[in-house]
Amino acid sequence: MYIILVIIAISFIKPSQSQGTIHDFNGKRYILENAALTWSGAEADCVSRRGHLASIQSDAEANFFNFVASNRQIWLGATKTLNSPPSDDWKWSDDTCWSYTNWNVGEPNNGGGNEDCMATAGGSTSVWNDLNCAASLPYLCELDDCGTANCQIDGGWSSWSWGACDAPCGPGTQIEERSCTNPSVSNGGLSCCGSATGNTQSCEVVPCPVNGGWTAWGTWGACTATCGTGSQRTVKNLYKSNTCPRRRPLCWRYI
């Protein structure tokens, strides 16, 4: 009874202009839609309202959602991302961090091998069950716009883009980057979940300048003298002199 009274005190409820009911709670705005849809249909409708199916980050939010749902089962914004053991790899559709869980005893159990979506369990508790995503249930949307100037806004990732090449010339590496600015965190909202850096790839801004280099020395050329002392040279982009031996002790000239 105490929890219900607290929730009533801090929850402001008024009719929505569309189907469903608007609920404001802790700086966020929600719409409870009573029309039953599949999980993907419910998420698509929430996105069309500029939001997502609701994510839960605390016991207070879990209790509030169960109160709003009037103890019925409603879709929440989590799905299992991989064909893995039932308790692993769940994520929120709004990309907030998976840091809080409130599963019912024995859940998630992946009954029938195809229960990949999350709903409240219904009844007087605020715990969760995994269900077949094709089931039709009412659902709770969490909107980006809370209707006031001081909305609690959770951060969202920007699109991936490639960072600068780490080499000014020649082969280098660049890293895929994103920032928690779409939107930025404000008024106590949650930061983005995951890494701001991603894949890497090779890059080259421009080829590096190539300095000249010496070749190996060539073979010795012919001696400048046919006899006696002369010189010979070899080439390595420049000339290098060397004294060559006499071919014979004396040069003779015959007249």
From TrEMBL:
Q: Which domain of life is it from?
A: Eukaryota
Q: Which SMART domains match?
A: CLECT (SM00034), TSP1 (SM00209)
Q: Which residues form the signal peptide?
A: 1-18
**Residues annotated as domain C-type lectin:** 25-142
Keyword annotations of the record? Disulfide bond, Signal
Cross-referenced Pfam families: Lectin_C, TSP_1
Which PANTHER family does this chain map to?
Answer: MANNOSE, PHOSPHOLIPASE, LECTIN RECEPTOR RELATED
Q: What is this protein called?
A: C-type lectin domain-containing protein
Species of provenance: Clytia hemisphaerica
- Organism ancestry: Eukaryota, Metazoa, Cnidaria, Hydrozoa, Hydroidolina
